[in-house]
């Protein structure tokens, strides 16, 4: 059973639709005490890091997510959900994250180029596989996925499953044990995104 964590942020319907397309079912979970009843969980999200953590903290879901991750059950963070897995973000001031993966979240550096990067990073872009992961089983290197974000993670290379270049390389897929982070939107990435979601349901 897949828990889709509902913390008032993100387009949950599109993620549910994508999961149903691969023949699975996700249940919206709003109560922290219910999360432990599921086999795997997805933390989606779009918007600001601080707002996401505030909603998680106010609902008590942040501690439930940490307990779930520490239990060894598979957890997938998507877009903002991936960023929340890290220690902190500089978006609109300094905000603490869930601290499940060591690293920080920072804005794209637009200043180092003659022609500044357009931010947010929106649209199709490819990724380069850095190491094996069950999340990428059957997915080709340099496949294209759909991105929408202004901030990205910085972390140790041991956690980086794949990187993407937008002016410079940044981590687009990360993993620490059974904790996975996916910066692009699988539900908007057609066949490649659906394959990655299916892989997660089979971990």
How would you summarize this macromolecular structure in one to three sentences?
With 203 residues, this protein is of the alpha/beta class. The chain has a single domain, classed as Rossmann fold, CATH 3.40.50. It is built from 5 helices and 14 strands.
Description:
By secondary structure, the chain is an alpha/beta fold. The protein has a single domain (2-201), classed as Class I glutamine amidotransferase (GATase) domain (Rossmann fold, 3-Layer(aba) Sandwich). The chain contains 5 helices and 14 strands. The strands form 3 sheets. An 8-stranded mixed beta sheet has the order 2-1-3-4-14-13-12-9, with helices on both faces. A 4-stranded mixed beta sheet has the order 6-5-7-11, with helices on one face. The protein has a two-stranded antiparallel sheet with strand order 8-10. The protein is globular, with a radius of gyration of 16 Å.
Question: What topology emerges from the helices and strands here?
Answer:
Layout: E1 2-5, H1 12-21, E2 26-29, E3 40-43, H2 49-59, H3 61-70, E4 75-78, H4 80-83, E5 86-89, E6 95-96, E7 101-107, E8 121-126, E9 128-129, E10 144-149, E11 151-155, E12 160-165, E13 169-176, E14 179-182, H5 190-201
Parallel strand pairs: 1-2, 1-3, 3-4, 4-14, 5-7
Antiparallel strand pairs: 5-6, 7-11, 8-10, 9-12, 12-13, 13-14
CATH class: Alpha Beta
Query: In CATH terms, what is the fold-level topology?
Result: Rossmann fold
How far the N terminus sits from the C terminus, by CA atoms, comes to 12 Å
Poorly predicted ranges (pLDDT <50, ≥5 residues)?
none
Number of H/I helices = 5
Architecture per CATH nomenclature, i.e. the level-2 architecture: 3-Layer(aba) Sandwich
Q: Note the run of SSEs as H and E.
A: EHEEHHEHEEEEEEEEEEH
Shape: globular
Strand order of the largest sheet: 2-1-3-4-14-13-12-9
What's the main sheet like? 8 strands, mixed
Provide the helix percentage: 10-25%
Tally of structural domains:
1
The CATH homology group name: Class I glutamine amidotransferase (GATase) domain
How much beta, percentage-wise?
25-35%
**What radius of gyration results from the CA coordinates?**
16 Å
Q: Please give the number of β-strands.
A: 14
Structural class, judged by helices and strands? alpha/beta
